[in-house]
Amino acid sequence: MFEALGQRFSNIFSGLRGKISESDLSNFAAEIKTALLESDVAQVVAENFSNQILKIASERADEINKSTNPAQKIFEIVNQQLTQTLGGSARRLRFAKTGPTVILLTGLQGAGKTSLAGKLAKYLKDQGNTPLLVASDLQRPNAVTQLQVVGDSIKVPVFAPEPGNGVGDPVKVAKAGLQFAKDKVHNFVIVDTAGRLGIDQELMQQAINVRDAINPDEIFFVVDAMIGQDAVRTAKAFADGVGFDAVVLTKLDGDARGGAALSIVEITGKPIIFAATGERV
Q1: Cβ atoms 191, 158 nearer than 8 A
Q2: End-to-end Cα spacing for the chain
Q3: Which domain holds residue 113?
């Protein structure tokens, strides 16, 4: 995900030699900011990150210059800040205290929610769980059929009482799916919801209604890693609307430059819990 950005950082670090002056640090911070912007990190995030690097490095200037490798010390500062921005330690799934653990997937159309639902179900099944997929995306053409195909391919049952394609009530399907999971003793429920090609009130209200009906243990915001500069606007709209607990990045095998990850985590304060490549389960 961060290969291109990592290469840019490496090139910047290679220019740091010998004793580091305040001017060197200012130039370094400016180059870091440029590298972040070129990786599709939002302007405000790039500015905050580079300013923080400059502040910490300036405060530790004596320590940096007394070390045998000043450039390595600065690298450690950048790496620490990058790790902190991305959420620090790994985020783990929250489990329900009683009954099945319910995971609600939200995001724009085309983000890869349905494929992600299958990947997540397979991941949980491989760990000995009994997941159930619930087809609550009743808007997108063939969304229900796609989820059924995904479920069949990994031998995970799909609760799909409605044909979709604009037919059926997603809230009723989600509630009935949760009850079905309880009756059949599934310990995980993954609810796929409808997206749109852009943010609109109808999309958000539908997701809110589903959320309120099933009271999920986890809400994942599924986002295309190639979304670039739109990442912040989209993530903030979902955070302020339906809300979410963690981020899932998809399509990392494409032309993703990593900026979406940094921007979303920094702006929303929510960690990345999973990252996925391709559509194949």
Answers
A1: no
A2: 19
A3: 101-275
239's CB contacts (< 8 A; 6+ apart) are: 221, 268, 270
Annotate 211-239 with b (16+ C-beta within 10 A) or e (fewer). bebbebbbbbbbbbbbbbebbbebbebbb
Give Rg (Cα) of the chain. 22
Rounded to 5 degrees, φ, ψ at 18 are 65, -155
Examine the fold and report which residue of 31, 59, 85 is the final residue of a domain before the chain moves on: 85
End of a domain among 26, 52, 85? 85
Is 191 found in the same domain as 142? yes
Domain co-membership, 79 together with 169? no
Burial class from Cβ neighbours inside 10 Å (0-12, 13-18, 19+) for residue 97 reads exposed
Q: Which DSSP symbol is given to 172?
A: H
pLDDT-based confidence at residue 11 (cuts at 50, 70, 90) = confident
pLDDT value of position 200? 81
Within a domain: 93: no
pLDDT digits (tens, 9 = 90+) for 242-275: 999 999 988 776 555 667 778 888 888 898 898 8
By C-alpha distance, which of 221, 217, 223, 261 is closest to 244?
221
Instruction: Indicate the residue type of 59.
Output: E
pLDDT, tens digit, for every residue of 136-148?
999 999 999 999 9
Which strand ranges, in their side-by-side order, compose the sheet holding 246-250? Answer: 158-159, 131-136, 188-193, 101-106, 218-224, 246-250, 272-275
Residue 119 sits in a domain whose CATH number is: 3.40.50.300
- Residue for token digits 């190639």? 226
**166 half-sphere exposure, CB direction, 13 A CA radius:** 1
pTM of the model: 0.86
